[in-house]
Amino acid sequence: MHRRGDSRKQSERLLREKIMKLPCITLITWALLLLTTAYGQSGDLASTRLLAIAEKEASIYRKIAEDPDFYTATDLDRRINELVQSYRSYLADQPDDVSAYVLYGKLLRRLEEYDQAFVAFLKADELDPGIAVVKQQIGNHLAEQGKGKAALTFYLNAIDLEPETAVYHFALGQLLHDFRSEFIEGGIFTRDALERELLKAFRRAANLAPENFDFQMRLGESYYDLASPDWRNALVHWNQLRKQANTALQGEILDLHRARVLGKLGRIEEAREVCSQVTNPALQNSKQQVLTEIAQH
């Protein structure tokens, strides 16, 4: 019985992790936006039905966000299965509803049913090739399958459709980094061109979402990714970001980066001084690694 209970708890935890990958507000926003676009008027029976399914899904995410233990594993599994069946039933009745394929595809991605989600997004793209998030989702799947060249096309299409969406630029930058050897060896980019585009993508993402700490961090780290790392611009970036740190932990993480770069620039005493400001116990191993690296210069 004890093992069965542990298994149930693990199942519950894994399912919660799967479905909480995307903010519920995104789901509702997409439902409203796509339904309005698709039907153009309120009161349409199909749109009302689809919105009800989307809102039911969002309510599950909200309850889990408020109380992670609100649902038992069995209850949560049942509710998710009901959602899947609701989308399938709806699509059987409305096989050309692009909004439903997008929402259904996102749910399947949450559940890690990646191949089925891919099929749903391909159908959505067939019905309407002008939806940026669909291009992104198809690109994500292709990248996960190791098909960098194919993913590149879809990421670029997403950016063309919504150039002010930061996450698309971020995804492009990461793709260029992850598949850099393939792109260079395949003649898609020269090394210099790839590095320019990589920096451009991460810089654009950071500029479009200045409050996103992860995007800001990745821009700073991208200076390290160059064949000849740009330590000076990296330091400028870390210094600017340090002034905007929202927590003590963020500040100390940035101090470690600043110390490392100062060491690379030969400013050893400054590097050690900055490192001495890092006191968080969780960062002591990283601090020691930086100090060891500094000592080698």
Q: Features of this protein?
A:
3 domains; mainly alpha; 16 helices; 76% helix
What are the segments in which pLDDT stays under 50 over at least 5 consecutive residues? Answer: 1-5, 11-25, 38-43
Q: Return the domain count.
A: 3
- Counted by DSSP, the helix tally is 16
Report helical residue fraction.
Answer: over 70%
Give a written overview of the molecule.
This protein is an all-alpha fold. It folds into three domains: 11-112; 129-218, Tetratricopeptide repeat domain (Serine Threonine Protein Phosphatase 5, Tetratricopeptide repeat, Alpha Horseshoe), CATH 1.25.40.10; 228-297, no CATH class. It is built from 16 helices and no strands. The protein has helices at residues 2-19, 24-39, 45-66, 73-93, 98-110, 114-127, 132-144, 148-161, 166-178, 180-185, 191-208, 213-222, 231-242, 248-264, 268-275, 284-295. Helix 15 runs antiparallel to helix 16 (284-295). The protein is globular, with a radius of gyration of 23 Å.
